[in-house]
Amino acid sequence: MVSCRLSLVLGILVTFFTLALLDPILTSSEVRYLECRQKAHEGRIEYEACIAKELSDEVLNETRAINDDEKCKNCKHFCRKQNEIIHCARKVGNFTVTLSNKASYMVPFLRDVFEETIAALCENDEEILKALADTENTPCMDRHWEPCDSLLMVSGYFNKVFFCDSTDPANSTFTPQYVCQKMHTALECLRLNSIHCLESLKKSITLLLSKLRSSASCSKYY
User: Fold this and answer.
1) Gap between the Cα atoms of 89 and 96, Å rounded
2) What is the percent of the chain with per-residue pLDDT over 90, rounded to a whole number?
3) Which H or E run contains 27?
4) In this structure, what are the phi and psi dihedrals at residue 23, rounded to the nearest 5 degrees?
5) How far is 158 from 24, CA to CA, in rounded Å?
6) Eight-class DSSP state of 174
7) Closest CA to 96 of 140, 52, 161
8) Using CA atoms in the order 189, 192, 194, 199, what is the torsion angle rounded to 10 degrees?
9) Could you tell me the pLDDT band of residue 35, with boundaries at 50, 70 and 90?
10) Where does residue 213 rank: exposed (0-12), middle (13-18), buried (19+ CB within 10 A)?
11) What integer is the mean pLDDT of 192-204?
12) Does the pTM exceed 0.90?
């Protein structure tokens, strides 16, 4: 079984995009915010239905027929279908980008981060993704990554960050810079807490951190 903390890391990619479409913490009864919340929820449903078609057992079997990678079948399939998964995200992004003033610049930013992360995970024959999915790394992730959980589990705020204008503009601090710095803090925490793990995992987290620092979306904020 894949570690639950692998799911948290992958929250920076497919799970990250899915969590970004989860219902927000309701902070106001303001009509425009409620309308935005509802439309973002509709986008989430559309996205999940779209990727479900690409991650079904039937489609997975097609990948296995082409290349039955015993080390990580799901990794091979995920990367084989990365263009289709990105298409699903773009399709929903074209809808959610119109939800608010914030969405007009935060949704394109989220899309770019999502696509950059998928590309990084799938480089070099899925090197990073395979290390994160390797069951030999699971005990170390479960034992040492717990201090980083709170940095990754921020799903309750994603609607406020990406989709809906704040009901109190004076307290609206969510920007691309904020997101980039949060991702950097989370990956740095994982790197520091992976020193006792296998070399493949340590290398993968270091690579992800390096790619984030040099990415088109975030490099200017470091």
Assistant:
1) 10
2) 45
3) none
4) -60, 140
5) 7
6) -
7) 161
8) 130
9) confident
10) middle
11) 93
12) no
Q: What is the DSSP letter of 135?
A: G
One-letter amino acid for residue 11 of the chain: G
Domain regions of the chain by residue span:
4-221
Check residue 125 and give left, alpha or beta (phi > 0: left; psi -120 to 50: alpha).
left
Tell me how far apart the alpha carbons of residues 60 and 58 are, in angstroms, rounded to a whole number. Answer: 5
The count of C-alpha atoms lying within 13 angstroms of the C-alpha of 127, restricted to the half-sphere facing its C-beta, is 12
Tell the residue number behind the tokens 């989220």, with chain if given: 110
Q: Residue 207: is its pLDDT beyond 70?
A: yes
Contact 103, 166 (CB under 8 A): no
- The CA-CA-CA angle for residues 49, 116, 210, to 5°, reads 140
User: Residue 6 in contact with residue 114, Cβ under 8 Å?
Assistant: no
pLDDT for residue 98: 93
Query: What is the DSSP code (8-state) at residue 97?
Result: T
Q: How many Å is the maximal CA-CA distance in the chain?
A: 55
* pLDDT (tens digit per residue) in 166-197: 776 665 678 899 889 989 999 999 999 999 89
Give the model confidence (pLDDT) of 56-72 as tens digits: 888 888 887 777 666 78
Which residues, 6 or more positions from 27, have their beta carbon under 8 angstroms from its beta carbon? 33, 160, 167
